[in-house]
């Protein structure tokens, strides 16, 4: 077969150049059909949500998240205070770290129903499981922080207590952030899609909470580093939350609406206000106390709000189905440099000069 004149097919061969035009017309028809037929709104699967909402209870789980984060960040403050020669801040942070880890473990055991279930999770160590790794991190943080506090308060084996404290410099930051990995590893849309920002948000919330406790429990003349940590944590949490909600777009609606939205707006106001007060408090007793209370309340509201947003996104099927449809539509969109580009070259006017080399490659000279 050869092309003659203005690209008309001559001879008895297959009409290759016309096939892509038919494909293009078919695709155009499909596009028009999609525009005419409205998309169905998916609400349930046989009367049930697509995902089973999280069964974590309140106040156990959000309080556990707060206490674990506060404990981890308090350990980091204690290490910093010990290395810089601030014994009063060191002692306050050690006590806060041990108390937070112990109470958090107790709440987790209560959440599981029976304490032995937590012990059963320590029977094996599975690096690919956030739950398994988190259980070991929490157990290590609880034991090490208790040893660090005991060595400081009793004076018995102080070197061992200091060694345990330095070890919490590793387990503390992990304790403050592993819960973010834990919730992001689920299928809950509001948590799973926020996997990039949640660790930073949880770390900032933990720093704000730990700084607040250290501010409240340390003489004002020695609480300067605690105020700095609290202010930095408040800024980190606020920025991470804003970035997360903007990036998530539609899937981030549960963070802005309903009970979760109210909790997170309150958390943002308390955290920003507490952070600013921590900066300007100086040695003012009233401002320091107000900043500490505001930051503590803000961190608690953040944990309650994050869990509530996850529950809301799991209960509404649209947060699961709509992103899946968008991903499927994006995957079915033809690539510009793939078959469509090749088809476009075939359907271009054969009389143009730009198609000369390509047409020569596809057709044979009738006289050859």
UniProtKB/TrEMBL annotation:
UniProtKB keywords: Cell membrane, Membrane, Transmembrane, Transmembrane helix
Comp. bias regions, Basic and acidic residues: 339-368
Highest taxon of source: Bacteria
Pfam family name, one: NrfD
Cellular component per GO, a single term: plasma membrane
Protein's cellular compartments: Cell membrane
Keyword Transmembrane (UniProt): yes
Topology class, membrane: Multi-pass membrane protein
Protein name: Polysulfide reductase
Origin species: Nonomuraea deserti
